[in-house]
Amino acid sequence: MIRSVLILSCIVTSPALAGEIWVTNEKDDTVSVISTETLEVIQTYPTGERPRGITFSKDFSRVYICASDSDAVQVMDPNTGEILHDLPSGEDPEQFVLHPNDRHLYIANEDDAITTVVDTETRKVIAQIDVGVEPEGMAVSPDGAIAITTSETTNMAHWIDTETKELFANTLVDSRPRHAEFVAGGTQLWVSSEIGGTITVFDVADQTEIAKIEFEVLGVHPDRVQPVGFEFTADEKTAFVALGPSNHIAVVNAESFEVEDYILVGRRVWHMDFNGDKSQLFTTNGVSGDVTVIDVASRTAVKSIKVGRFPWGAAYRPTE
Amino acid sequence: MTGYLTALSAIVTREALRFIHQRERFVAALVRPLVWLLVFAAGFRAALGLSIIPPYQTYITYETYIVPGLCGMILLFNGMQSSLSLIYDREMGSMKLLLTSPLPRWWLLMSKLLGATAISILQVYAFLAIAAGFGIVMPLLGYLTVLPALVVSGLMLGALGLFLSSFIKQLENFAGVMNFVIFPMFFMSSALYPLWKMAESSELLHDICAVNPFTHAVELIRFALYASFSPTALGWTVLATALFTGLALWGYSPEGSGIRRRR
Questions:
Q1: Domain boundaries, chain B
Q2: Does ipTM exceed 0.85?
Q3: Quick one: pLDDT at residue A311?
């Protein structure tokens, strides 16, 4: 009875496309697959050690998983959960991004201070680029011309020309940058700084800083407000920012750079992804070991779903 | 039959009139839970960010947790308040007038109970509206499904008040009711903390809270506010309502102690 009422209310509020959210569980060495319709875990597949970054190929036929402690990027068949093969990735791959050409993976190697570029078809490393210490955040511009690596210890965003595979600019950001994302048709770059507690917005044309977004969660010590992952709504007018151990998601107006709202989620919220029509947002909460579902329109947390230990990355794939 | 309805409407109207004429009482009844919600709960914002218990589906703030308990608090205080008014009636002599009616005594008492419960529910809705104004919003359907839960809980606490009033001889003794009924019932329940939190400090405390009928009333309201249903809470609340009503009727019957003492 209770369940049917709840399921009914879910159906009423989200006539979403059928799909799945894939979540890497850092401490369980697994991925959990959540149905975006029933909001329940429907599958759990084993992976290499310490899976973190996760992303699908353009046609969703393969899923790439950074198995950090196995020093490999694993390629999985999402229909069977079978690991097809490993890609050479350099040591300790933490995050990566798939180039719009659907072929080149740009991988941050945390321990080696390099960014590795791997061809997913020939399974060969085609370039290794020296960047700052402890690279983590990765982004590629929509036109594929620029790749970004952020380095946690050097506190910089490194701008890579994807043609020449060389750095053409380095810009300082606040302490421990974690995540980078191109927006507004690739004219802006957003970089989150975990310890600095800010997001820095750059003008891509001349790599200058346009804005700095600061966060303040009522009743939470500023030290615990640590922005990490963030994602944009379909119209790119709103950004959702994970604030780590403050256990909140910030809702940011992407035009005025003002924080409009804070949403309570699980403990140490890290990364996130949307469902197909971007009506629901799924956040990975590392310490509480669950994924919180946020209704994007009403900006409210709807449900938290238990997954494995220390969920880290999240990626969506449609199933119909 | 019309005689019954006349008595019912007269008693309910009298309750309503008394309520309307005592604006301070309405304000006081709202201020009490609002102080808890806006002042007390403010310091505990993060206290519950650790666990998800049904009917909640995700993490909630303490303000959200405490709302059903405060709805229960309104019903509890009002239940006791109506018992206070009965004592007043007895002292003033208007109760004698009421009880000399040719209608059965149980009907008169039930009318009184229904009237008091209706007034309580109005106050609960006023409180929920103010809470919503402060951003503590329940699912829309919950505001409807909570109504039957409020009726059952209100009747239970009203019946308890009625039963107690048959024993209290003077208005002055009402302080005793505060000390020995309202406070223990409210604090030893799931109104302020979930039961698992109680179990962390003391198993005994947890067990006392678990048998407290007020806990079940609060849980019934809590589930109903989220458009879900707790059969256990309903079962215990209904049972307690039946028991308290029975005791109240006995207390006011000529054989009962209430009347005996009056002689």
A1: 2-262
A2: no
A3: 96
